[in-house]
TrEMBL record:
Its EC number is 6.3.5.2. It is an enzyme of class 6 (ligase). One of its GO terms (molecular function) is GMP synthase activity. Keywords: ATP-binding, Glutamine amidotransferase, GMP biosynthesis, Ligase, Nucleotide-binding, Purine biosynthesis. InterPro entries: Class_I_gatase-like (IPR029062), GATASE (IPR017926), GMP_synth_C (IPR001674), GMP_synth_GATase (IPR004739), GMP_synthase (IPR022955), GMPS_ATP_PPase_dom (IPR025777), Rossmann-like_a/b/a_fold (IPR014729). This is GMP synthase [glutamine-hydrolyzing]. Catalyzes the synthesis of GMP from XMP. Transmembrane segments: none annotated. It comes from Gemmiger formicilis. Residues 196-389 form the GMPS ATP-PPase domain.
Length: 514
């Protein structure tokens, strides 16, 4: 049976992943494609609906992103958001131009609640606006169903053709009832039934893995993190002992992490699996020596991971598949989905070398968002401490050390990080950040210790709150947590004489510190 699908066509908006996430929260499967994708390819996906995202361009300018106009005659419902709404109006004969007043931020919008989009919403709703252009005049055949004092067409619809346009961003949490608007679109307009559920995803994936792998052998790259643990559990369920899990100590792990992972997954641990722990510290340190560019470091690590897996595969003999816990944001951020720029090469996607000595790479979680992965893990019966843990990036501490990586620097950041996590873990669960760690800046400065001058490194502490890891707020922590940690770090960790707290949100910073 084919899964109901809604397709997001990406025009370069900042929130494209959020749109897909929200649609999936409504139990409808959703994928992102670039607006450049051939219409025939999109049609072949047989989607129930299409959503055009926002974007930085102006629809009325000649070189702006556009789309095959045939899409409007195809009969599949379309929802245009912001740039997407302006593009739809512009292409269908409405008037789009620079707005006399730009709107930015939370804005009270008057809605016509007879519209299927605004069903069960209040007549006035706070919506998130972010635009310089506006729709001065809706296209012929469209009825205006929302406005604000500065925006005559905040939403319009052509019910007969199934075309809908909203100037605001329903996908952003600042829009009250935003998810309800998207839900209304996928249920009331696209007539989806809502067949995207984690229990059926797990069941179908296990079945598909079994068919694909047959009696072949699989090497699963297991980090002990959420994604690869769920991936391994799924494979174990599908193919049992045909699976070998390989955990690599690349010398960039957190303090005591190797021991912890081996305890959980190794012999006498909680799982009955073939588990191998590889000490590859020297290999990685050698390759990383003298390298200080963040992207270069990522590429080196990505390649070396694969080489280690290839070597391990030779020892097992005739391994057909390499399995990785790649998830959807890894793919999109590496510049492979939609229109988003390459922000960073995730070592397991954009950082992969061109030649890989496996028949095929298997990534059963490639289409899932993080919270969906956690849910799948629960379906598979993984313990909560495994599925709920904070993410730890594959390139490890290499991307929490500014500049070149040495074993000495790794030891410094490991010790500082362990103290920071220990102090935060004293807080009640509800007060803990979504992700928190220490990073080693490349800055050295003068200090005084025991009446002696020091010239040592500064540690940066990071703590952020986020649900989707696409945007993040700085977590406001009790002062005592920060000062205690800072004190302990300068006292207990050698070569550190200064501790700083990073107060930057994402954007403009990223969560990691590289
Ligand atoms: N130390 C490691 N040993 C073996 N495989 C690894 C290691 N680190 C990362 N990987 C592989 O790279 C993939 C991507 O790493 P990533 O950190 O995104 O996922 P994760 O560690 O499984 O989950 P989490 O996001 O919770 O840390 C992992 O799913 C795993 O397959
Ligand atoms: O598996 C990973 N491989 C990577 O290469 C990688 N880079 C960043 N991250 C994690 O992604 C989230 C967002 O991070 P940034 O704000 O730094 O982009 C944060 O949770 C980061 O820890 C990675 N995870
Ligand atoms: N957020 C958007 O999609 C903006 C659309 C368009 N660039 C504008 O300024 O109005
Ligand atoms: Mg990880």
């Amino acid at each position: 049976m084919q899964q109901e699908t809604v397709i997001v066509l990406d025009f370069g908006g900042q929130y494209n992943q959020l749109i897909a996430r929200r649609v999936r929260e409504c139990n409808v499967y959703c994928e992102i494609y670039s607006y450049r994708t051939d219409l025939a390819k999109i049609k072949a996906k047989n989607p129930k609906g299409i959503i055009f995202t926002g974007g930085p361009n102006s629809a009325y300018l000649p070189d702006s992103p556009t789309i095959d106009p045939e899409i409007y005659n195809w009969g599949v419902p379309i929802l245009g958001i912001c740039y997407g709404s302006q593009l739809m109006m512009h292409m269908l004969g409405g008037k789009v131009c620079k707005a006399p007043e730009r709107e930015y931020g939370k804005t009270l919008v008057d809605l016509n609640t007879d519209s299927p989009l605004f069903d069960t919403l209040p007549a006035q709703n706070v919506c998130w606006m972010s635009h310089n252009d506006y729709i001065e005049q809706a296209a012929p055949g469209f009825e205006i169903v929302a406005h604000t004092p500065n925006c005559p067409v905040a939403a319009a619809q052509d019910k007969a053709r199934g075309l809908y346009a909203v100037q605001f961003h329903p996908e952003v949490l600042h829009t009250e009832n935003g998810t309800k608007i998207l839900r209304n679109f996928v249920y009331n307009v696209c007539r989806c039934a809502g067949d995207w559920k984690m229990d059926s995803f797990v069941e179908n994936s296990v079945k598909a893995l079994r068919e694909k792998i047959g009696d072949g052998k699989v090497l699963c790259a297991l980090s002990g993190g959420v994604d690869s643990s769920v991936c391994a559990a799924m494979l174990a369920k599908a193919i049992g002992k045909q699976l070998t899990c390989v955990f690599v100590d690349h010398g960039l792990l957190r303090k005591n992490e190797r021991e912890q992972v081996c305890e959980v997954f190794g012999e006498g641990g909680q799982f009955d699996i073939n588990f191998v722990c590889v000490d590859a510290r020297d290999r990685f340190y050698k390759k990383l020596a003298g390298q200080d560019a963040p992207e270069r470091k990522r590429k080196i690590i990505g390649e070396e991971f694969i080489r280690v897996f290839e070597d391990e595969a030779k020892k097992i003999g005739a391994v057909d598949f390499l399995a990785q816990g790649t998830i959807y944001p890894d793919v999109v951020e590496s510049g492979l989905g939609g229109e988003s720029a390459t922000i960073k090469s995730h070592h397991n996607v954009g950082g992969l070398p061109d030649y890989v000595d496996f028949k095929e790479i298997v990534e059963p979680l490639r289409d899932l968002f993080k919270d969906e992965v956690r849910q799948a893990g629960r379906e598979l019966g993984l313990p909560e401490y495994l599925v709920a843990r904070q993410p730890f990036p594959g390139p490890g501490l290499a991307i929490r050390i500014i500049g070149d990586v040495t074993p000495e620097k790794v030891a410094i950041v490991q010790d500082a990080d362990a103290i920071w996590r220990e102090e935060i873990d004293k807080l009640p669960m509800a007060q803990r950040p979504s992700q928190y760690f220490a990073a080693l800046t490349n800055m050295r400065s003068v200090g005084v210790m025991g009446d002696e001058r020091t010239y040592d490194y500064a540690i940066a502490l990071r703590a952020v709150t986020t649900t989707d890891f696409m945007t993040a707020e700085v977590t406001i922590l009790p002062t005592e947590t920060i000062t205690t940690a800072a004190n302990r770090i300068v006292n207990e960790v050698k070569n550190i004489n200064r501790v700083m707290f990073d107060y930057t949100t994402k954007p403009p910073a990223t969560i990691e510190f590289e």
